[in-house]
Amino acid sequence: MAEVTPFRPLADRMRPASLDQFVGQSHLLAPGKPLRRLLEGRSLHSMILWGPPGTGKTTLARLVARTCDSEFLALSAVMAGVKDVRAAVEQAQQMRAGSGRRTVLFLDEVHRFNKSQQDAFLPYVEDGTVCFIGATTENPSFEINSALLSRARVYVLRSLTVDDIQQVLRRALEREFSSGAEAVQAADDAIATLARAADGDARRALNLLEVAADLARAGTGAITEEIAGEVSAGGYRRFDKKGEQFYDQISALHKAVRGTDPDAALYWLCRMLDGGCDPRYVCRRVIRMASEDIGNADPRALQLALEAAAAYERLGSPEGELALAQAVVFMAVAAKSNAVYVAYKAAMADAQKNGTLDVPMHLRNAPTRLMQGLGYGEGYRYAHDEPGGYAAGEKYFPDAMQPVRYYEPVPRGLEIRIAEALERFRSLKRG
């Protein structure tokens, strides 16, 4: 059993000492994969490690330095500033002058540095003073300075699978809890429960194991399914209300509704609500879906979306969430049309392109004698007085603009009948 340093968390004690011990990220580190080949050739380059918590970003940065025989300096953007960066660079210069070794300067939570702070790294990355490695849980496209991005390669780390997590837990049990007076055993089903509760986060898994081991020592010395369930209660799912997880999941919900998959739509709705998303935000997006993707193919969708939002405001959570689920399922199975959405965008483009075209005189109201004398409203044909309630041949576009057909109903739902009616009116206009 490895020597336990007092107060040192199990997750830190279990950091892999070599690439072969690293669990997960086989798309980067399996034999023959890009990053593995570069490291085995000791080809050191600046990089951004992007991935969820507990996927090994810090550990991988340490292994990069060790594999490439380099010094390792670590900073955290939560606490550090430009002054600390300059001090680290000065230390790297001194170490290089003394030992001739390059320095890996690791910045955890790099997205917490603003763009000007990130600029502080540029000259030292450019001249090779340091090899920069940044770790982030946020999308580098939005959070990392483009100048820094151009000098560093981005590697995407993925959430660990349940099998990966079980491998980490079994290794920890064997190394840390397998012998001595405080030895602990764990049943397979208990390990599986802890692995599932970790939600792809190795650090969380090891923290859960440490708590479970303490409970086991107070009892029979075995981590049972009951103990694993107890320490895993109230588990969490990753959901950043302002980050990429948020927008990825609402995108998935929207696309599932658009793709007529009520089951997937319900799943993503529940993922968002379970993760802590404000149901009012989902209400707003569902109302948008009703107009953007269903439109006049089934106008009931907009009505139901509005009623679901009103129901949630009246009932709150969790009762009101069922009305939201009802609206999502209805819209997922409803006939789809984006004809109004497409027409709106085209009309808006023309409105912005054509400038302030005058309203034709016959379409203007004439509430005063002066306006009547100027010809306001002259020649206007009141549609209700026309045969069939339609003024065939009347023009409603500006005089300086040719009529444009924006709205093209799709052959689905109510828009089939709308298209037939529009064609009748157009035939009257042509006649």
Give a quick rundown of the structure.
With 431 residues, this protein is α/β, with parallel strands linked by helices.
Question: How would you describe this structure to a colleague?
Answer:
The protein contains 21 helices and 7 strands. By secondary structure, the chain is α/β, with parallel strands linked by helices. The chain has 4 domains: 25-156, P-loop containing nucleotide triphosphate hydrolases (Rossmann fold, 3-Layer(aba) Sandwich); 162-232, Orthogonal Bundle (Helicase, Ruva Protein, domain 3), CATH 1.10.8.60; 244-333, Zinc Finger, Delta Prime, domain 3; 347-430, Orthogonal Bundle (post-AAA+ oligomerization domain-like). Strands 2-3-4-1-5 form a 5-stranded parallel sheet. A two-stranded parallel ribbon has the order 6-7. The protein is elongated, with a radius of gyration of 32 Å. The termini are far apart.
CATH architecture call of the largest domain: 3-Layer(aba) Sandwich
Strand order of the largest sheet: 2-3-4-1-5
| Total domain modules | 4
| Name of the CATH homologous superfamily of the largest domain | P-loop containing nucleotide triphosphate hydrolases
* Secondary structure: helix percent: 40-55%
How large is the share of residues in beta strands? 5-15%
Number of helical segments with 4 or more residues:
21
Topology-level CATH name of the largest domain: Rossmann fold
What is the gyration radius calculated from CA atoms? Answer: 32 Å
The major β-sheet equals: 5 strands, parallel
Could you say which structural class the secondary elements and strand pairing correspond to? alpha/beta
Strand count: 7
Low-confidence parts: none
CATH class of the largest domain: Alpha Beta
